[in-house]
Amino acid sequence: MDSGHPDLQRRRLLASLLAAGVSPQVLATAMPEEEYILSAQGSHEQAYGLGQVRRHHGDAQSASTGFRGHGASVHPLKPGIALMYSRRPGDRCVEVDLRTNTVKQAFVCPEGHHLFGHGCFSQDGTILFTSEADFRSGKGKIGIRDSRTYQRIGEYDSHGVGPHEIKLMPDGKTLLVANGGLLTHPKTGRKTLNLDSMESRLSYIDLSKGQQLEAFKVPEDKASIRHIDVASDGTVAIATQVQRAAMRHNELVPLGAVQKPGQALEMLAEPAVLIHHMQDYMGSVAINNRTRIAGFTSPRGNVAAFWHLDEARFVQYHQLHDVCGLGVSNDEQHFVISNSSGQLRFLDANTLQEDKTKRLHFPHMRWDNHLLVTRV
Amino acid sequence: MHKHTLLATLIAASVCACGGGGSSSSGGGEEPDTGLEDALRLIIDDAVLNAVERFSTQTATLNSRSETFCDALSTDNLDALQTSWKATQMEWFALANYNFGPLNDDLVFPKYTFIDSLRLRGTNYLESVRTRIADNIANDVTLDAAYFNTQTFQHVGLLALESAIFETAAAEHGQDLGDIVAEYNESPRKCEILTGLAEHLQAQSDYVQNGWTQDHKGTGFPYRTLFLAGELDDGTEPVVQLIVAVQQHLDYLQKRSVVTQSAQLAGNAWESMSSAIDNIDAMLQIDNPDAPSFFDVMTSRGLDTSVQTVQQNIAAIRQAISDRDAAMLEIELGKLDGNFKREIPDGLGVVLGINFSDGD
User: Per-residue pLDDT tens for A151-206?
Assistant: First the structure.
């Protein structure tokens, strides 16, 4: 009676091919892909893991990791494999097989280093970069590893303090680093140790030599550039978090910005009331290349807000309690947002209106800071 | 019609589920029925809706007395008008504890900012208000409802009315009752400003009252019904919405030094502060045989020490108000603010959200 269901068809086909002696590896590359939504999740140590939702199944499960994750990446050379990076000041990264929902292997930072929860791959997929701190010197680092073995090859200076999200630019030769400027040390947990002297910058780094090509700052010294996304043409969207306690003024500070290739940062200063509502905090940013719209989430403001990249023009907002995870569906038709109550909502990428028929809710899941939509 | 019926069914189902289950908002597994849902319903009906009604009544009185004053300019009528403004301000401070729903249903143009411009960011727009009033006395712009509806939030609401009622628009901004009445006599357009502002404030209040009791944003349902059914647009759990709103008001009262910023011309900032705290205190310990209070729920969960902590902090705030000690008030408000982030949600078994409280 369910013979028409694509999942059942897929399972039957898989079973018959396996029975016929076709290897799982061959099957993995031959079978049609399906859309997965990945996010670190959990609210306590026993529950922490990499959560995954299979869109067409409508189910959710979590691969237990024992530590709180932050960002995730899909491995470009290992089908069905994703990495989850521990949140600062953690030092672990796990490799998760999405098909079996198991942790396959893990690596830890060198002694004296910790992670910041983000990483990315080189254009050919052979190198993994991670944002790290050498907490003995206080310097930001970019860890460099063989993406197949995770053996450490070397490191670059991040050219700042507290590198957070990192992204490969479309040229494949430049690494974009959000140097948040916040100094922390594992002994003092997540406490910021340099609020008075913090300096955040957006650094463009030459991947062949590790040299900083260009660096940009936002006008407010106490705005920490933490999260970034890059459009296919190299336009960058950045999301900041303002360290209000360290500021000497009480003025409203724009939280988002856009930078077109070769141009200065353009702050997203309007609408002021909405930006005030975000309470100095943006948690994620994602660009939809099809519509040229960038989304930003603020869990403190319970809102996802959207600006057009080309005109830096505010477009729309959507309210969702404790929203933070933000991504773009594989077909680029929707923005996907998540929250810590286990909810997932899909916003039309043109109108930014929610398609309520697509709502998903997994009450046992606590979607954390970031969300990634991928095909497996 | 179909959508309407579906929503009604959902709400009915949710209300049934709320009444029977005693569900935990933490989602952290089965918890005993502590009566939290009943406590929440009681708070909405006794504390929140009463605050909405009282503010509505006072804005209507203020509007009426503005007309009375302008019909018969006298120091007695001005005195009555000033008394009415003070009462409205005090009721506003009680209602402002619950800055959600119709008060705050548009993130770009939220209603509350058109009532109290200070509430947005603690920015005092008095000079801007004074300039606008002086300009409008001097120019010939038509001062009708359409005009006031197009004004930005800085130029309307309680602050604009305070300036119009408690001081002259002339450069010295005198506060003598006779001088103020004389200015109204000399500048009839000032009465158009006063009545226009009072009508505009009442329109904001009417919107809030209608949203809570009749129809919220065209849904066909009062916000009260949607709230208690857990059918909020942004998916926030009702109890979380309530706790966070009160906490944010306390944060605002503390960080924006409101007793030295608000109602300075009228001179009733301390009384307004008392109104806010009295309302919070009453909300936490409503005495009703049909449902427990928040304090009752916390006690039933074995957290009576947390209840005592909150009560002590409220008492300390009252003492600081009584002493007119702004520095001490700031400290004590900070403690109660912290109670709404930790002791109270923990005591009720409520999780406010992991990203909200601990993001990166």
Answer: 999 999 999 999 999 999 999 999 999 999 999 998 988 889 999 999 999 999 99
Q: What is the ipTM of this complex?
A: 0.82
| Listed range (A180-189, B184-193, B330-339) with the worst mean pLDDT | A180-189
From the list A88, A117, A319, the residue facing B234 with the nearest CB is: A319
Q: Which of B105, B63, B342 is nearest to B197 (CA)?
A: B63
Q: Enter the CATH code of domain B34-351.
A: 1.20.1420.20
Whether residue B353 and residue A341 make contact (CB cut-off 8 A), yes or no, is: yes
Give me the DSSP letters along B72-119. S--HHHHHHHHHHHHHHHHHHHHHGGG--GGGG--SSS-HHHHH-THH
Residues from chain B that touch A226, judged by Cβ atoms under 8 A, are 360
Round to whole Å and give the CA distance between A133 and A160.
10
Q: Rounded to a whole number, what is the distance in Å from the CA of A368 to chain B's nearest CA? A: 7
Pairwise CB contact (< 8 Å): A276 & B120: yes
CATH class of A34-375: mainly beta
Q: What's the alpha-carbon Rg for chain B, to the nearest Å?
A: 22
A369 and B359 within 8 Å at the Cβ level: the answer is: yes
In chain B, where are the structural domains located?
34-351
Out of A43, A70, A274, name the one closest to residue B108 (CB): A274
Cβ neighbours around B221 below 10 Å, total: 19
CA of B260 to nearest chain A CA: how many angstroms apart? Answer: 16
The reply to whether residue B237 touches residue A321, judged by beta carbons under 8 angstroms, is: yes
Examine the pLDDT at B9 and tell me if it is beyond 70: no
Q: Is A70 on the interface with B (CB under 8 A)?
A: yes
Residue A23 is predicted with a pLDDT of: 60
User: Are B356 and A299 a contacting pair at CB < 8 A?
Assistant: yes
**pLDDT for residue B236 is more than 60:** yes
pLDDT in tens, B243-294: 999 999 999 999 998 999 999 999 999 999 999 999 999 999 999 999 999 9
Cross-chain Cβ contact B235/A321 below 8 Å: yes
Q: Is residue A26 packed enough to be buried (19+ CB in 10 Å), middle (13-18) or exposed (0-12)?
A: exposed
